[in-house]
Amino acid sequence: MNDLMTDLKTDKTGPNPLAPRHMTVREACPDERGLREKQHGSAYGTNPHENDKLDNINHVLRGEILKSVSMVDQDKACRLLGLSSEDDFASLARLENQGKILRVEYEGRAAYPLFQFDVAGKQVYPVIIKLMEMRSDAWGSNFHLLHWLTLPHRSFNDARPCDRLPHDADDIVASFDAEISEPLHG
């Protein structure tokens, strides 16, 4: 069954078509969906063909961003943080839930950008934790934060913030604060 509630309509074929308790939901046929999409457009484009193009562009962009950054899996992330107990994956999950490590999905698996780890200190750079605290869900997801960290910025002489984590924590926080405080245009 389709996840979109707009593709569902009531079927009044029960014993009493007017009684709500006999109403069931059936999936709209393709012709009905097509007509509805032509009349109303779609969730983020004006027609399904544009949505397919936008989905493809988003997929390509996501792939390019993820390929531009070295990523580690859960096992390597645990080792980088010095987690060596039997429950190291639970400890890592706790860090994720507390917003103390940046995690994204990559090819259906948990992935952690390598740049966030202070290998010598066996910790996540505190500036990453601060950025995650500052970021609201309305601003964007962990992936949006990853994207922001990998974009060249004028305030860092076109360097990426992820490359400046050990050196420019205060400037990165100030730049991110300016980014998230700007009004969204749409």
Largest sheet: 3 strands, antiparallel
| Mean model confidence by pLDDT | 77
How do the SSEs run, as a string of H and E?
EEHHEHHEEEEHHH
Indicate the low-confidence ranges by residue numbers.
Answer: 1-29, 38-44
Question: Over all CA atoms, what is the radius of gyration?
Answer: 23 Å
The end-to-end distance, rounded to whole angstroms, is 32 Å
The level of helicity is 40-55%
Compute the number of structural domains. 2
| Strand tally | 7
Can you list the strand order of the major beta sheet? 3-5-4
The helix/strand class is alpha+beta
Number of helices: 7
**Residue share in β-strands:** 5-15%
Shape category: globular
Could you explain how this protein is built, in words?
With 186 residues, this protein is α+β, with helices and mostly antiparallel strands. The protein has two domains: 1-40, no CATH class; 67-181, no CATH class. Helices cover 42% and strands 12% of the residues. The protein contains seven helices and seven strands, in the order E-E-H-H-E-H-H-E-E-E-E-H-H-H. The strands form three sheets. A three-stranded antiparallel beta sheet has the order 3-5-4. It has a two-stranded antiparallel ribbon with strand order 1-2. The chain has a two-stranded antiparallel sheet with strand order 6-7. Helix 3 packs across helix 4 (88-97) and helix 5 packs parallel to helix 7 (169-181). The longest helix has 20 residues, at 48-67. The chain starts with 7 loop residues before the first strand and ends in a 5-residue tail after the last helix. The model is unreliable at 1-29 and 38-44 (pLDDT under 50).
